[in-house]
Amino acid sequence: MTARWLKPYMPRSLYARAALILVLPMVVVLLVVSIAFVREHLKDVTQQMTHAASREVRLILDTMAESETQNEGLAQVRPLLKGLAMQARFLGPNESPTIEARRWYDFIAPQVESFLRDELPALSAVSLPNSQMATLYLQTDLGVLELRFDRRRLSTVAPHQLIVTMVFFAVLMTSVSFLYMRNQLRPITRLAEAAQAFGRGRVVPFSPGGAVEVRAAGSAFLDMRARIERQIEQRTLILSGVSHDLRTPLTRLRLGLSLLPEEDAAPLLQDVAEMQSLVDAFLQFSQGVSEGDPVDVDPAALVRQIVDDAQRAGQNAALGTITGEGTVKLRPVAIRRAVENLIGNAVRYGTRAEVGITLTGRSLRIRVEDDGPGIPPDQRTEAVRPFSRLDPARNQNQGSGVGLGLAVVADVARAHGGVLRLGKSESMGGLCADIIIGR
């Protein structure tokens, strides 16, 4: 329960959390040492010194107790004042005690005043403006006596020096630790950046570094990246090779069927056309997102061009709302293929398609909506798998799809570090397909 309410206030980055782990114990130690030093050690020392000074003050008061005038009293205690290094005088009839402001960091002064009031009932006021001089105002039968002496007789000199020294060295050592910690965390940051870039379809140079554990994680990432790249390359080569090799027999079949009577060859030519469509889909799926590296692309301009091309091809496609401006690192050929697949599916299973864009500082969303039957929520996960054909939801007799359209779109989205989300169009009632890519 405690972790839940504390979690929103905790830093999210590794560097900030490591800094908190480093600084928090240091601050706690400083507070504990400071409080213990002030309350225990300094308190005892101050009480002893104040008690000794109070005995001297009481001696002066007792000596002048039998005097009848102020001058006589001062004359009687003059030898004591000289020996005790004190100065004394009586305040005038219209004169009041002068209480100077204390220093804000003088945390010993309140203890000194408290001890003096306990020891000296005749004390009426105390002035402790600095560490050099202390002034006591005592109520006597002859008037208010002002007694001045060295402040160092009441408490230690500059008791805050220990705390200041601890704070200085704590800040110094913490700064050094921060520099060392930043150097240790830099390899982790580079590993995170390389992994994030690879997840978005970019390969950035990376070499393992840092501690042994970080080096091991970096080497494991490089091996994983190499295996994934080999698998992608092998998949592309296999599918491309198979699809390419199938074209030759299909061409021979089409030539052979052209020699037969038209009424006999028609059904067979339809089968060959479906096989040709399947081969083309294989080629498109095998190409994936292999067309070059990501470049800065204006997604609004790219989508406008795709919609214009679809309209010239006779597809009922329209450009919807465009929100935001800027560029995003994309593979334009792959994005074009993905959006064209979505538009093709929309006009095949519905009557029209609408394409919109939302560009923010964190993400890019390309939305394609249609007025077709849509896809039920429980079948949307299955719909993006290769060779998936959802006959009840989207009538396959309306086209020659082979179940790779949404799979290609999902593959393109994942290669850009994004995701394909399927839902229901609120405005058109059919399918709503969102390609969401982080910036």
UniProtKB/TrEMBL annotation:
It holds the Pfam family HAMP. It catalyses: ATP + protein L-histidine = ADP + protein N-phospho-L-histidine. It is an enzyme of class 2 (transferase). PROSITE patterns: HAMP, HIS_KIN. Its EC number is 2.7.13.3. GO terms for molecular function: ATP binding; phosphorelay sensor kinase activity. This is histidine kinase. It is found in: Cell inner membrane. Its main location: membrane. The keyword Phosphoprotein applies. Keywords: ATP-binding, Cell inner membrane, Cell membrane, Kinase, Membrane, Nucleotide-binding, Phosphoprotein, Transferase, Transmembrane, Transmembrane helix, Two-component regulatory system.
